[in-house]
Amino acid sequence: MSTLAKCHNIADLRALARQRLPDPVFHYLDGAAENEITARRNMQAFDDVRLVPSCLVDASAVDTSTRVLGQTIAWPVLCSPTGASRLFHPEGELAVARAAARAGAFYTLSTASTYSLEAVAAASDGPKMFQIYVNKDRGVTRNLIERCKQAGYAALCLAVDVPVVGKRERDLKTGFTIPPRLTPSSFANFALHPGWAWGQASKGPLTYANFEARTEDSGFVKRSKRLSAGLDPSVTWADLHEFIELWDGPFALKGVMSAEDARRAADTGVSAIIVSNHGGRQLDGAAAPLDVLPRIAETVGGGIEIILEGGVRRGVHVLKALALGANACAIGRPYLYGLSAGGEAGVARALSILRTEVETAMKLSGCANVAGIDKRLIL
Q1: For this structure, is 193 an active site residue?
Q2: Entry pTM
Q3: Which of 8, 27, 89, 278 is catalytic?
């Protein structure tokens, strides 16, 4: 039995990822803001929800398919945008896009990807969304949107939860920051993972591939500085119309956490909102997405699609989120644990685990299809 086959849940993949990654890289993936209270709450919130299953329902087969952002997907899960995925495996975003397509999941590419949006578009024929941040130079953002159109992305996602980068203390302790300030123990730990280093070296210099090369900032560190410095903290609701109109297609707003903002997003004309606190990596002490989901669903449910992101580690978590009003869930760390543990095969394993758990949870709760998952399941 292969090592990946011995991983029976996302926690197993996380443990394997920890073995295979240098400590600074693992903590960059696994860590969150300040005391990490919000990151823990994202997961704990699911434990507080109790299900009341129905019996004597034909469980011989269930239909997990659904439709999100104009695309039919095999099950109600999207892969969230995660920056610099090549840090975790040399194939990075390419591996995730290929595995997501085979698993019938929607893949979202980050602006801060380490393979270009064109390369990722060509890597698979599965549905893809591109996530943008608004740059102080609006021409940069407009250019990315136009390139997405040309590359055939199905939807666009604007992330609004990073006006500045949160204080991530694990990175401060390991020195895995921009610029790097690696500690002696961090240097030593990199030396203990030659396989990781060799894999990175085999693909050439690491960089943010969606930005044009400039002599003065062609390296990863310099482009990281450029990306962070380019974030525009002055963006307001008044700016949103421009990007919706420029894209002229399915459009998601990522980082909505209040019912009032959800209503305003719906009134502005977005197709979907992604209820998210950025995996607890921004404002520590913020509520968990699942905590605010019922009120948001009550406010805008049916008017626009609602995608829940944050804390999903089990298929039953997807069931609970849908029962509370979400149309789908998005995952980030779970597939990155798989990527770190075993590249494309590891991502496939993570998605297979979750999809099987979703199917099992639906059968055990008496839900024959996604449309049948509603608040009647909740105690």
Answers
A1: no
A2: 0.95
A3: 278
